[in-house]
Structures are given as structure tokens and as C-alpha cells.
Amino acid sequence: MKILVTGGTGFTGSALVLRLLSQGHSVRSLDNQRGIYYEKIEGAGGELFLGSITDPNVVEKSMDGIEFVFHLAAAFRELDVPDKHYYDVNVNGTRNVLEAAKNHGVEKFVYCSTQGVHGHVENPPGDESSPIAPADYYQQTKYEGELVVHEFIRDGMNATILRPTAIYGPGDTGR
Fold first, then answer.
1. Which of 37, 43, 99, 128 is 20 to 30 A distant from 144 in Cα terms?
2. Beta carbons within 8 Å of 77's beta carbon, 6+ residues apart
3. pTM of the model
4. Domain annotation covers residue 11
């Protein structure tokens, strides 16, 4: 299967890309930079497509021949990054990836959000029925990205939203 992973040279994305490659899939990673895991991905046979999900033309080109999308690219918590950047990447960028997936007839779309959209869960563990209460702008824009995914689901796209928590494992830089 031909798979696109946005954010595939990041920590979570690179683990996913390497697993997919080990299972025999053809994997393209769309990233705005080479990332610290680039060499591992390239060595395993992955393809890197450089560009930003905020650029609809780049996203369209990266989607050529793709059957399945894992959308992991995101603006994460960084110092001195304006709120507009989070919105441009996490909401508008998500819309760009969804539009391109729709235009190219992608069979399945998986959006990686965050359990942080629930904020503080009073009685853990939380689940999808827990109240939505983002505690910061990153979490807010990830939730707004979910709302964009729901628009496409209503229009017939086969999509799933994941809300992982505390991702760690081999290769974690501990930032």
C-alpha cells in the first residue's frame, strides 16, 4: 500500500514510518525539514517530500499515488511561536491535507490529535465522552483540527481521529 505520513521525520511519525516500511508498505513522509530521524527513514527505504502542510500546492503534489494518510504533522508547544502559527498548521494545514486526500481519492485518513483536548480529566481515565476543555492554544487548535476532520467525514471521507497521550519509546530525545 502507498502511504503518506505527514510529520514522518518527527519522533512519533518516524516510529510509524519505520514500522510501515518493515511491513512492506511504500511510505512517503511530508515534512517541512529533514528531521533528526531522516537518515533512519531513508536507510529503510522511505521517501521524503520536503514542504509544509500550510502550502496547498505542496500537499497536492505529495499526495500523488497515495492510498492511505496518517496526518501527524503539527505545530507543537514551542517558545515564542505566535498563536497564528498553531492555527495555520494545526487547523488550516489539516484542511489542506484533507482536501488533497479527497482530491486524490485516498481510501483512509487517520488524524493524530491529542488527549489534551480534554484538559484536566477529573476522574481518569478519560475517554471520548470526557468533556472538551483544552488547556492551551496547541490543544485548542488540535481540537479545531478534529472539527475539520468531522466536516470531511460528514461528506463521506473514511477517517479516524486518534487522541494519544504521553508518547514515548526508543529514540525519545526527552525534550
1. 37
2. 136, 138
3. 0.94
4. yes
CA distance linking residue 110 with residue 123, whole number of Å: 28
What digits encode the pLDDT tens for the residues 109-154? 999 999 999 998 888 888 888 999 999 999 999 999 999 999 999 9
Asked, for residue 63, whether it belongs to a domain, the answer is: yes
Q: What is the mean pLDDT of residues 21-33?
A: 96
Task: Say if 59 falls within a structural domain.
Answer: yes
Rounded distance between C-alpha atoms, residue 141 and residue 84, angstroms: 10
Active site residues: 138
CA distance 60 to 86: 21
- Here the CATH number for the domain that contains residue 147 is 3.40.50.720
Residue 160: other Cβ atoms inside 10 A: 12
Residue 172 lies in a domain: no
Domain of 78 in residue numbering reads as 2-162
CA-nearest of 95, 93, 94, 132 to 116 is 132
Give the chain's domain count. Answer: 1
